[in-house]
Amino acid sequence: xxxxxxxxxxxxxxxxxxxxxxxxxxxxxxxxxxxxxxxxxxxxxxxxxxxxxxxxxxxxxxxxxxxxxxxxxxxxxxxxxxxxxxxxxxxxxxxxxxxxxxxxxxxxxxxxxxxxxxxxxxxxxxxxxxxxxxxxxxxxxxxxxxxxxxxxxxxxxxxxxxxxxxxxxxxxxxxxxxxxxxxxxxxxxxxxxxxxxxxxxxxxxxxx
Length: 208
Description:
- Residues 8-68 form the HTH tetR-type domain.
- By secondary structure, the chain is an all-alpha fold.
- It has 2 domains: 11-65, Homeodomain-like (Arc Repressor Mutant, subunit A, Orthogonal Bundle); 71-159 and 166-204, Tetracycline Repressor, domain 2, CATH 1.10.357.
- Helices cover 60% and strands 0% of the residues.
- The protein is built from 10 helices and no strands.
- It is flat, with a radius of gyration of 21 Å.
- The termini are far apart.
- The model has no long low-confidence stretch (mean pLDDT 86).
């Protein structure tokens, strides 16, 4: 009778298991002992690969970022569409891991995102419509809009929201309710149009 082989552990496989655990049970339920149980090892074994719980969570955040597809450029495509796809891909990735998404609030992997934003910076630099002095506003704004949209939706207790104001009511908020009724877009299309509106507005800021 042979015993099962011991699991092969490395940072990537441990982080992927941790992410799967959060996807299933939620970020608040995550702990190193539970991760060890999931891997079939004792908790001290994890310290051969990670300094502490925060180090694991940093690697989980990197794993989420790495799951995001970087779009290809398409010759002749209107220049804002590359950035719409870039932002939409990141948002979709976060929402695929909505129960783990809070990890990005505390452990957003800036170093890894810098490599992604170098791609964005090289793309925006090719378009004279956006002056050099607006490049940082452009990239920082894309990040905040994308993360904010995805995280607000990810932590919503009642799931995806085509109505971002579910507690509004006719008696107290008649103008807001009128805007909600007039909206014809689902949550993702609303996000896409928000990104397009932002991109269209950046060059306009320099018009006097």
